[in-house]
Each structure stands twice: as structure tokens, then as C-alpha cells.
Amino acid sequence: MFLELKNIAFKYDGNSQYVLKDFQLQAARGEIVSILGLSGSGKSTLIRLIAGLEVPTGGTIEINGRLVAGPDSFVPPEKRKVGMVFQDYALFPHLTVFENIAFGLSRLSKAERSTRVDSLLALIHMDDYRLRYPYQLSGGQQQRVAVARALAPKPDLLLMDEPFSNIDCELKQKMRSEIREILKAESATCLFVTHDKADLEDLSDRSITIDSQ
Asked: What end-to-end distance do the CA atoms of the chain give, in Å?
């Protein structure tokens, strides 16, 4: 399996109640998996654990055959090759669309950066917007730029935490299908946190439901 979580447990310091306990998850390469659950069930905590922003109380996490979290092992977030898209997209307001997408490509040459960003701009159908700033974009356009920025360094895994929460209902269905096309074109493995069951049909290959502890 490309992503494998075994017996994951997590509770915050000073709290006796587990947010997650004995949690198991597997995902194949290129698979898009939706994570469903009620508010407070631990969906966002799960994403933070996989990204390395929290440390599991117990269990192991493997990404692309590499142990990134376990009893005697912890790989920091910046070394996990994991991309993230947040609810508010977190675009840099002072950078253009081109510069936002290129942000994580500092190790590439200028020509290589330009080639990679150009290919992603074409993929998200925003080549004409390269010099615009986030405030000049619609919510759907900002979302596509956020996904392109997360995919730019070619991460092993993409994590999305309810990225449709700030988009109106009429645009959601269109954006789901567009994001799925982008992810499949990049052969990206993706975990997608949501509370909306409509996301399952339009975006994910399968779903997992987290029950509240």
C-alpha cells in the first residue's frame, strides 16, 4: 500500500480522552480517498498526523514505503513529501498566481521552475491569470491555484482539509469535477477531508468514515 496507518491513537496532552484510537487506513497509489465524519470526530487531526503536524500517541504511519511516524521514529513535516490544501487556501496575498505556484520550487533552476509552473497553469486552465494576485481571483480560481501550488513539488501525497467549505453551492459540483481531473492528470494520491457526502460521487474513489470516540 502507498499509504498505511496502523493502530493509530492520539490524544492531546492533559486530556484523557482519545481523539483517535486503534485507527487503520490504507490507500493505493493514485487513489483519492474521502474521510467522512461528524464535527469533532478527528478528521482534521488525522490529516495533521499524516502531515507531521502532530505526533501519534501510538501506532505507525508509512508513506510510499517509508516509516514517517512510530514509537521510535518521526520524520518532520518538511521531509515527508506531503502537500496540503487548507480550508482558506492560504495563498500568499503579495505574490502573483505564478509566484504562488512556484513558491515550493526553490531547488529547481529558473527554467525548470518556469516549465513546471507553466504546465500546472495549463492544467488548471489559468495561464491568462499568471500575473494576477489572489484578491483578483474568484473563490474557485483561488482553490485551483492552491491545488496547483500543493502539487508543484510533486509530493508523494496530497492532503485536502475541507477546501470546498468557502465556495457557494452552485460552484461546488463544478469544482469537484475539475479538482478530480487535476489530481488524476498528476496521478496524485489524495486524502480528502469532508463532511459533505456529495463529495463522494464527484471527487473520491472511495470513502472512510471516522466514528466519534
From this structure: 26
